[in-house]
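Long-time lurker. I teach an intro course on protein structure, and each term I like to show students one example going from raw sequence to a predicted 3D structure in C-alpha cell notation. This year I'd like something fresh instead of my usual example. Would anyone be willing to generate the C-alpha cells for the chain below so I can use it in lecture? Attribution to the forum is fine with me.
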Amino acid sequence: MKKINLFDISRLRTEESFGFVKKVIELTAKLPGMDGPITTEGEGGASSTLVDAKTLLMDKQDKLDLALKNPTSVPTTKEATQRDAFRDKAWQKSRMFLKIMMENPLAEKSKLAAVLFALYEKYGDPTSLSRTEESGILHNLIQDLSEHNSNFEKIHFTEWFNQLEDAEEAYLDAWKQNDTERKGLVVGVIQQAKKDMENAYRNLVEQVNSLARVYGEEYYEDFIDSMNLLINDHKKVLKLRATLIKKKKADKEK
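-- Reply from a regular --
Happy to contribute to a lecture. Here you go:
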C-alpha cells in the first residue's frame, strides 16, 4: 500500500523547513475535500480531518513566519529606552549649560565655554539618530571634551560632563544586556515555532497515511506520489550537504 515516506523534517534548516511546508500546503489541494464540500466518513475518507490538519499546519507556518519577521521584545527594552532618553537629556542640558556660560561676563570663562561648545556644534545633534550612530557621536564628543578636563572646574562643567559620560555608559550597558536577551529569546521563539510547524506536518502525514490505509490509497495516490517526490528532493539536498561537510572536515585534517 502506498504511503508518504518517513522524513525527518527537523534536519532541514529553518528557511528550508518553511519552504518545504509551504510546498506541502500547496500539494494538499490534491487531497479529497480540499476543493469542494467537506465529507465525513465514506467516499474519499474523513476529509474534515484533513481540513483540520491542513488548517493547523497553515497556522503553525504563519506563526513561524511571524517569529522570523518580528523578533520578540524583552523586559530590558524598557530600561534601555529610558536610559536612551536620559542620555539625550544629559547631552541637551550640558550643551545648554555651555551656551549660557558663553554669556559669562568673565572673558576667561566665556572663552572656555565657547571652546567646549564648539565641540558640540562640531558633531551636531545626535539625539534623533539611530542608537548606533548616536553612541558613535557621543563617544567621540566625550573623548574630545575629556581633553579639556583640566579646565572643567573653572566653569563648573565637571558635573555636567560626568552626567553625560555616566548616562552614555549606563545606556551602553543596558543595550548590551538587551541585545544578549533578545538574541537568546528570538532564537528560542523561532526554534519553538519551527518545532510546532514540523509537528503539524507530521500530524498531516499521519492522517493521510491512516486514511489511505482505511479507505484505500486511490483517494490519496496523487498527493502521496507528489509528497514522496518532494521528500526525495529534500533528502538529496541533505545527503549532498552531509557529503560536503564530510569532505570539508577531511580537507582540514590533511
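Some talking points for your students: The first helix runs from residue 14 to 27. The chain has seven helices and no strands.
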